[in-house]
Each structure stands twice: as structure tokens, then as C-alpha cells.
Amino acid sequence: MKLVYSYYVLDIVHKGHLLMMKNAKSIAGKDGKLIVGILTDEAVMEKKPRPTLTFEERIELASAIKYVDVAVAQETYSPLPNVKKIRPDILMESTSHSEEAIEEAREVMESINGKVIVLPYFPSQSTTNIKNSIKESS
């Protein structure tokens, strides 16, 4: 059974999130599992403002998405502490993350005989852009 780990803030669920989860679940395969890390408020605030939705709301939303087998708390912005505990076969990354962070993830995944798959970021599908659009239209 293949384990795939992917992680999100998930403040506003949008098509970009669903595409990433759908692809991650597809990579896990029919018998595999997609484990989704949802960043706690404290983890998000390492790099971004506090999410609008509570952590409890965001993890409940993640759990309701059909591609997700298990949703877990991610206590840091980096997925690596969870990756070291869970030891997935594959860590999903996005081109929205820095090359340094992706390279560090590759090193950790190689140390546990796993790999990183990097999928493109779709800037048109951005929580920040959606929030800004809502503000501008008000």
C-alpha cells in the first residue's frame, strides 16, 4: 500500500486544492492512502496571516473531501516533522514552495526511501487572490 502525504492551509477550498488532492490520490493508487496535513493556526502564522476559518473547521473540511483518506494536524509550516513520523512513500510538493524547501524535503524523503513529487502551482487558484477579490468587490 502506497502512502502519499500532501499538506494545506485550506482556509478557502478551491479548485487548485482539489486538483492537488485528486492527483495525490491518483498517485497513491486504488489501494493507497492519501494523508492530508492541515496546518494549525500557529503553523500558518509562521509565514502568513491567521486563517479566517478555525483549524477545527479546516480539518473537518479536509476530512469531508472524497480524495482524502486521513486528515492530520501539521504543527509547523514545514511538512517534515509529520513526514518523519508518518514516513510516507511520496510527499507532494508545489512549485509555490521555495526550491530550498523542496530540496530539503527531497533529502528527508530519500533518507526514508521515499520521493517528492512536485506539481505546478496554479496562481489563478489562490486563497489570497480569492480573498483580495472579495475585498475589492465589497
How is this structure best described in words?
This protein is α/β, with parallel strands linked by helices. The chain has a single domain, classed as Rossmann fold (3-Layer(aba) Sandwich), CATH 3.40.50. It has 6 helices and 5 strands, in the order E-H-E-H-H-E-H-E-H-E-H. It has helices at residues 15-28, 41-44, 55-64, 80-86, 99-111, 127-137, and strands spanning 3-8, 33-39, 70-74, 90-94, 115-119. The protein has a 5-stranded parallel β-sheet with strand order 3-2-1-4-5, with helices on both faces. Helix 5 links the parallel strand 4 (90-94) and strand 5. It is globular.
Q: Which range does the strand content fall in? A: 15-25%
- CATH C-level class is Alpha Beta
Strand order of the largest sheet: 3-2-1-4-5
CATH architecture: 3-Layer(aba) Sandwich
